[in-house]
């Protein structure tokens, strides 16, 4: 009898011990430690990641998807600073506007792996962020299934000049009109001597340049344009700060120039055929903070750019 009682006690004790052990194991299996934004190698929060770099370059060539986020399509760089969203939308003044950050164009908030951006003009967007490498992130819009890819830099190492010259066709569009302010004394007489105004518009809108023989100094809205056509910017081998400009006049011959930038509001055109030098000053600067306009600037991939020129 005592033996039976002893066995019963041992059996009951083993059951209690087993259930006690099992309970501890279950608790450890289901416990989940709250995690920060762990796409980063160092496990920092999303907001901290965005502030690791002062400037994020929008690599429009890597854009994936057919949707559009207007404020990213027009931006060369964006920055995230203490809840304020900045963008460099203009090449005029890039590197100096807002101490390099550009314009204050909205606000933002971060939530684990999502950023909510409230743009002053374009409204609210909820984007998912994935860190691809130490200085590369992807911004994904789940509504349009479109991704933008951003590269991080510090202001003192970011090559603003390279961005300027790589996108110089947008620079020409940042003034309502360019007025001829200088013609060299040397060089053969030619038809372009008589053209005093050039206007550059956006690719995809049909004819994208106009020229006028009106006298200098008249109001922008009073200029009457005599010619229309397409313009084209191309590279010069081993020279990043000078381009070629071809004015393809409708029903007329082309004019070919070497294009140099004197400053943020002055360009120089060298006409090899006549060896004449011209300078044009920009009038009516356009600030690309606004959007939703048919004529607003929009950055596009070079492949799409080439299609529009055909």
Can you give a write-up of this model?
The protein contains six helices and 16 strands. It has helices spanning 2-30, 46-50, 70-73, 160-166, 168-172, 302-309, and strands spanning 55-58, 77-81, 84-88, 103-111, 114-119, 123-133, 136-141, 146-153, 175-183, 197-200, 209-212, 227-236, 239-249, 254-263, 266-271, 276-285. With 310 residues, it is α+β, with helices and mostly antiparallel strands. It has an eight-stranded antiparallel barrel with strand order 1-2-3-4-5-6-7-8.
Which key terms come to mind for this protein?
310 residues, alpha+beta, eight-stranded antiparallel β-barrel, 19% helix, disordered N terminus, disordered C terminus
């Amino acid at each position: 009898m005592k033996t039976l009682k002893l066995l019963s006690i041992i059996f009951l004790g083993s059951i209690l011990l087993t259930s006690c052990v099992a309970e501890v194991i279950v608790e450890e299996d289901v416990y989940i430690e709250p995690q920060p934004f762990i796409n980063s190698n160092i496990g920092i929060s999303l907001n901290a990641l965005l502030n690791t770099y002062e400037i994020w370059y929008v690599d429009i060539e890597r854009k994936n998807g057919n949707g559009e986020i207007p404020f990213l399509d027009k931006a060369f760089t964006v920055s995230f600073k203490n809840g304020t969203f900045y963008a460099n939308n203009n090449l005029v003044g890039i590197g100096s506007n807002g101490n390099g950050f550009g314009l204050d164009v909205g606000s933002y908030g971060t939530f684990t792996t999502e950023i909510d951006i409230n743009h002053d003009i374009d409204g609210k967007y909820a984007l998912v962020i994935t860190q691809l490498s130490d200085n590369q992130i992807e911004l994904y819009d789940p509504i349009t299934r479109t991704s933008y890819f951003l590269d991080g830099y510090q202001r003192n190492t970011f090559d603003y000049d390279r961005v300027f010259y790589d996108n110089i066709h947008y620079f020409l569009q940042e003034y309502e009109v360019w007025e001829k302010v200088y013609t060299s004394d040397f060089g053969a007489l030619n038809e372009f001597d008589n053209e005093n105004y050039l206007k550059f518009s956006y690719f995809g809108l049909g004819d994208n340049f106009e020229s006028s023989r009106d006298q200098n100094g008249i109001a922008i809205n009073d200029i009457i344009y005599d010619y229309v056509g397409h313009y084209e910017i191309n590279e010069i081998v081993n020279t990043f700060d000078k381009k070629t400009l071809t004015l393809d006049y409708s029903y007329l011959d082309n004019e070919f120039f070497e294009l140099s930038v004197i400053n943020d509001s002055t360009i120089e055109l060298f006409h090899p055929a006549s060896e004449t030098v011209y300078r044009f000053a920009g009038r009516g600067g356009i600030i690309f903070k606004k959007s939703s306009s048919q004529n607003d600037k929009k950055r596009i991939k070079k492949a799409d750019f080439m299609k529009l020129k055909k």
